[in-house]
Each structure stands twice: as structure tokens, then as C-alpha cells.
Amino acid sequence: MALILPRLALPHLQVAEALAALGAPASRDALAELLGAAHDETTRELEAVLEAPADHALVWPDGTEKLRMAGPLRQGWDGPLGLDAPLEELLAGTTSDELRGMLAALGVKPPGTKPQRLATLVEHHSDPGQIASVVAKAPAAARELLERRAEAAPGEPAQFIMFGHPIGSGAPDRLAPPACRLVPPGRNAVRRRDP
């Protein structure tokens, strides 16, 4: 992978990043829509750009009209296009009861099975109007944090939260536990800090 990536031009990497953001396998139509390739000419350009990654077995069609991506290439981006992993992936380890509780808290009647609950939650969170409503009802500090996160440019350093306040927002850094810092919103891990 390390030998191939430097040989790819920027458009090849941009298309690969867009495919990673969609979560391969994804359809060519979904990729074209994301990239704004709606006309015949731009669709042909997209097909031409896809040839180089395909020549190196980085991206390929799977025979069912879907594009697949080599795992190591997908791992080249922590958050392709500034996005976290798909909700299905983030909630993969969540129990059915936890999903039921999330749906109930959102005022949505939970269906009977875990896959149905996950699908209902994903459908709910796929609606920008629903998300805007949830954010509007959130406490002021949570709304501010979500708005800052949404406005952050891709590649911008992530903000870290400690005791409910972003570092650098006036919260005294000396209060944080010395061995760890909480990671940015959307991540489920603790970042260790060497003494």
C-alpha cells in the first residue's frame, strides 16, 4: 500500500476517500451522487478516475454493481470527508435493550428485534430534520459542542473534552486526570497521556 499510494493522483485519492466515506461496498450511483457527477461527461470522468485504483486492486467492482475497497486503503482515513464511521458500525456492539432505550428517549416506538431497532435508529438519524430537533432540545453546552463539531473543517485538530468543557475553552487544564484525556466526540476510547 505504501508503495502504491504515492503514485496515485489527487483525483484518485479523492474518489477513494469518498468511497470510504460511503462505506464500501457502495454503488457507483451513490459515489457519483456524492461527488456531484450527474452528467454524462462527469460520469465518464469518474469512470476514468476509478481505473487507476482498480489497476492496483485498491477499488474494484464486485459483479453486483457495487464497488469494493481494499481494507488497508479504507484505513487510510480516520474520518473520511470529516465523517465518523457509519452509525451501524458505531452501534454494532450495542445491546437490543440499549437500542430500545435510545429509541424510547427519542420518542420512537421501538420495534421487536435488535436488527429492526438498529434500522429504525439509523432511519431516524438519517433525517436532518429529526437530528435538528434532537439538537434543539439538547442542553446548551451539548448544543454548542455539537455545533462546534459540525463546523470544524476536515483535518482540523479535534477538540478534547474534560469535565464537560472543551480544552482551550477556559476550563482549567490542571483539573484533568494526569493519566488520560477524553477523546473527541464520536469516538469510544480513552487516549492515554504519558507523564
How would you portray this structure in words?
This protein folds into three domains: 5-82, Arc Repressor Mutant, subunit A; 87-137; 155-195, no CATH class. It contains nine helices and seven strands, in the order αβααββααααααββββ. The chain has helices at 10-22, 28-35, 40-55, 71-74, 87-90, 96-105, 114-125, 128-137, 140-151; strands spanning 26-27, 59-61, 66-69, 161-162, 165-166, 180-182, 190-192. Strands 1-3-2 form a three-stranded antiparallel β-sheet. A two-stranded antiparallel sheet has the order 4-5. A two-stranded antiparallel ribbon has the order 6-7. The longest helix has 16 residues, at 40-55. Residues 169-195 have low confidence and may be disordered. It comes from Streptomyces vastus. This is SAP domain-containing protein.
The major beta sheet can be summarized as: 3 strands, antiparallel
The number of helices is 9
Mean pLDDT score: 76
Counting DSSP E segments of at least 2 residues, the number of strands comes to: 7
Number of domains: 3
Share of residues in helices? 40-55%
What gross morphology would you assign?
A: elongated
**Could you tell me the strand content as a percent range?**
5-15%
**SSE pattern, N- to C-terminal:** HEHHEEHHHHHHEEEE
The low-confidence runs, each spanning 5 or more residues with pLDDT under 50, are 169-195
| Rg, alpha carbons | 20 Å
Query: What is the topology, as strand order, of the major beta sheet?
Result: 1-3-2
The CATH class of the largest domain: Mainly Alpha
CATH architecture level-2 label of the largest domain:
Orthogonal Bundle
